[in-house]
Design a protein that fits this description.
InterPro entries: CALHM. Belongs to the CALHM family. It is found in: Membrane. It is built from 13 helices and no strands. It has a domain of about 190 residues. With about 350 residues, it is mainly α.
Length: about 350
């Protein structure tokens, strides 16, 4: 389990490597699915073309959509596209970069499926067997006196070994169509490789500053979302722990008052344990305040301009609290000012 946990943490920290691994697994899965798939041509003029072309087109579309589903950046892209502008403007170049990156990875598995299908040639043979001129393969007496309907039925049975009587003509026609299918497969691979080469070669010709800018901010958006989710989880965990501790403290306090058994040592230990959880609350201690923080994060994210407050040590914490509170829609942080009361206790030796 430790090895799997370490591998999962590595993949989480390296999002790009993780997505490349997913694309490679999908490409291998597409090739494995095709080899395990039982090809059964209907050998009927009405359905041969639909079955052959459907096998060539439908699975790649499914793999393409599956690539979008498995890519975590799709939700990031949709959120960035639909969010209100607020204090942070949108950059269309970042959205285009993220969309192109997702699309490129999603096209790997469909390209593998189309290549394997064309190299095998079965779907191509099933789809285009009815378009053959069988007289070119010899034995013209086989189709002599046949009507066009009977000839199409005969040609539709070429992909099926047990339905076509003359095996020599069937083998010759099958080899002819498979050669055309393999040629199309090699042309498809050549075009895909040439397109990838052009993308790699042309990219340095453009301004690298714009590319680095879009790449940087696309990574920033992804990392910011992850850190915000982690912070929300930590706050929710601390909020729940403090809430439960306060509940049990109230119950235990009532029971102690009833039984008249004070226990000051346990109270001190509980206070020490709560300090870390209190710090993680970041001053947000009410449900309505947390709802406002989450709503403001969606509607008006903070501007990407960090400022350093030059204040003295005494007022530093107070000013930072007011600044953070004003950014999140509050005044003076997330809590209201509470009037402090001073108590004086006098001890007498009498």
């Amino acid at each position: 389990m430790d090895k799997f946990r370490m591998m999962f943490q590595f993949l989480q920290s390296n999002q790009e490597s993780f997505m490349n691994g997913i694309c490679g697994i999908m490409a291998l899965a597409s090739a494995q699915m095709y080899s395990a798939f039982e090809f059964s041509c209907p050998c009927m003029p009405e359905y041969n073309y639909s079955y052959g072309i459907g096998l060539l087109v439908v699975p790649p579309i499914w793999f393409f959509l599956l690539g979008f589903v498995l890519n975590n950046n799709v939700s990031v892209l949709a959120e960035e596209w639909k969010r209100p502008i607020g204090r942070r403007s949108k950059d269309p170049s970042i959205l285009r970069y993220m969309f192109c990156s997702i699309t490129q990875r999603s096209l790997i598995a469909p390209a593998v499926w189309v290549s394997v299908t064309l190299m095998d040639g079965k779907s191509f043979l099933c789809a285009f067997s009815i378009n053959l001129d069988i007289e070119k393969f010899g034995n013209q007496s086989l189709v002599k006196g046949m009507s066009e309907t009977e000839k199409m039925k005969l040609l539709a049975r070429i992909p099926c070994k047990d339905l076509f009587e003359n095996q020599e003509i069937r083998v010759a026609a099958s080899r002819y169509i498979k050669c055309i299918s393999q040629a199309c497969g090699w042309m498809f691979l050549l075009m895909m490789t040439f397109a990838a080469f052009l993308i790699r070669a042309i990219r340095p010709c453009f301004t690298q500053a714009a590319f680095l800018k879009t790449k940087y901010w696309s990574h920033y958006i992804d990392i910011e979302r992850k850190l915000f989710d982690e912070t929300c989880k930590e706050h929710a965990k601390s909020f729940a722990k403090v809430c439960i501790h306060q509940y049990f403290e109230n119950i235990s306090g009532e029971m102690r008052n009833f039984h008249h058994h004070p226990n000051y040592d346990s109270d001190n230990e509980d206070e020490d344990k709560k300090k870390s959880d209190e710090e993680k609350l970041l001053g947000i201690r009410a449900q309505d305040d947390m709802n406002k923080v989450l709503w403001n994060w969606h509607t008006c994210k903070p501007a990407l301009a960090l400022k350093k407050d030059h204040t003295d040590d005494e007022n530093n914490g107070r000013l930072n609290g007011e600044a953070n509170g004003s950014l999140n829609g509050f005044v003076k942080g997330h809590t209201h000012d509470v009037e402090k009361k001073e108590w004086a206790v006098y001890y007498s030796k009498v």
